[in-house]
Amino acid sequence: MLLGVNIDHIAVLREARMVDDPDLLEAAMIAARYADQITLHIREDRRHTNEKDLEHILKHCKSIVNLECANSKEMMDIALKFKPFRLTFVPEKRQELTTEGGLNLKIPNLKENIKILKENDIELSLFIEPNLDDVRQAKDLGADFVELHTGKFSNLYNAIFTNILKTPYALKEFKLSKKDLLFLLNDEIEKIKIATKEADNIGLKVAAGHGLNYKNVKEIAKIKEIVELNIGQSIVARSVFVGFKAAILEMKELL
């Protein structure tokens, strides 16, 4: 299974002090050497990465680069100018801390923009909820890849197997009995498995990501049809204690 490392969380540290430190290009070079792909999300408000980062990484890193962005004219212009290996359309809300939920596949111009990107030799992925309708619609839209949103799985796993419910970071909707949480967790894993198998059967490559960490990732890594996981925050958090290279290699070993 391949590992894509999302380096946005390095950029979050850089933007906290606005001093170009840590160096995002240095992080990208390390990720390029020890992982299989670099992912970065250029947001409308440029809160962490930006097009100059994309330009430098594409110029200097010998790695597949996956650009995450919203389906907008501005981002289409950036994609067509710099031509990353892959573009992943994701939902985006200005007020959110991180991407929440899968993409609405009924947004205007989506099919047209996918066609334009593929004509420019850019592989196209859609970040979707793990359900059959979205998988089939992604195929109809012309996507090459789907990335299944694992946020609900990750939150449920953490609610059961960590102490997060006893911390200020607990999510109210998961303050349930352990029995109820286990039922919801197993149901979500089954949804991911069913969506993955359907995507594989109809010729879509399958990635997964959001909220995956060193404790929960093995459950998703067991699903053989998933070819790639995209992970960022937990790797960058781990790197504070062991270094970026070691954090990447620890995750690779789990996969």
Structure description:
With 255 residues, the protein is an alpha/beta fold. The chain contains eleven helices and eight strands. It has helices spanning 8-17, 24-34, 51-60, 73-82, 110-119, 132-141, 151-161, 178-201, 217-221, 233-242, 244-254, and strands spanning 2-6, 37-41, 64-69, 86-89, 123-128, 145-149, 205-209, 228-231. The chain has an eight-stranded parallel β-barrel, surrounded by seven helices. Helix 6 (132-141) packs parallel to helix 8 and helix 10 (233-242) crosses helix 11. The chain is globular. The mean pLDDT is 94.
Estimate what percentage of residues fall within beta strands.
Answer: 15-25%
Sheet/helix structural class: alpha/beta
Distance between the termini: 6 Å
Task: Count the beta strands.
Answer: 8
Low-pLDDT runs of 5+ residues are: none
Task: Note the main sheet.
Answer: 8 strands, parallel, barrel
Q: Calculate the mean pLDDT score and round it.
A: 94
Helical segment count: 11
Radius of gyration of CA atoms, rounded to a whole number: 18 Å
What form results from the Cα inertia axes? globular
Record the strand order, biggest sheet: 1-2-3-4-5-6-7-8
Helix content: 40-55%
Give the helices and strands as they follow along the chain: EHHEHEHEHEHEHHEHEHH
